[in-house]
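Box S1 | Example of a co-folding query
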Amino acid sequence: METAAAKGTLVVLAADLATTEELVRLIHQVGPHIAALKTHVDMVEDFTMESWHEVVAAAHTHDLMLFEDRKFADIGKISKTQMGGIYDIRSWADIVTAHRVSGPDIVDGIAAGWDEVQRIGGVFLLAQMSSRGNLLSEGYTDATIATGAASPHVLGYIGNGSAPDEVSSLRKKVGEGKMIWTPGVNLSAAEGVLGQRYGHPAEAIGAGADGIIVGSGIHGAADPEAAAAAYAEASWNALLSR
Ligand code: 5BU
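Box S1 (continued) | Returned holo structure for 5-bromo-uridine-5'-monophosphate
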């Protein structure tokens, strides 16, 4: 939020690109207009730890936290080891996502992963999803929030940005103590590919989101910098009017 307030943006960039070179270029293009950088490290085709450090350094240049959308889902001890491995997520990610499906101990497993390298990070639990037909029912959402409320490692929840009523229902349940970040937002597209759904970013913020996760709306735009600025403005104005 310090970064968000300094830059006047609630945009979390979903940097879904295939090479580290493209990632670094995009980060420098849109860095002034975004508040955090979300990655899928396992979609990067030319991954080496060395080249990844360039992505991390580029993010730090723009005061961005690194948010690896890993969606951990295994039992606690395996999630802990998966924080290491070839991508060594624990060594560079400040925030990761996790499903609640395997039980509440996944959160402690992830925290133990950071602990091994003397780092501390935060977990976003998936309380809702933006994709159609997902299995995250109301009861599942409630159990997810109960887990998050009981853990100092959980800093917030992923909500469904494509449906403002779902975001406001989530906000009511969560209260003000944790964050809600929402994917499934786009300024123009009504529908995404392969089951993705979209809503308007200002409506997601109006309904209670603290951050909007935007991917193709920015990296797929003809002018990513202008697009990032437009999302930043829409998100910040929506926050001010909320
Ligand atoms: P898009 O290009 O703005 O549709 O990308 C959305 C991003 O948010 C992408 O990286 C997804 O992995 C991520 N996402 C999502 O779309 N919906 C969800 O419910 C969750 C994550 Br959780």
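The pocket of 5-bromo-uridine-5'-monophosphate is lined by residues 14, 16, 40, 69, 97, 126, 129-131, 158, 183-184, 192, 196, 213-217 (CB under 6 Å). Residues 181 and 211 are 4 Å apart (CA to CA).
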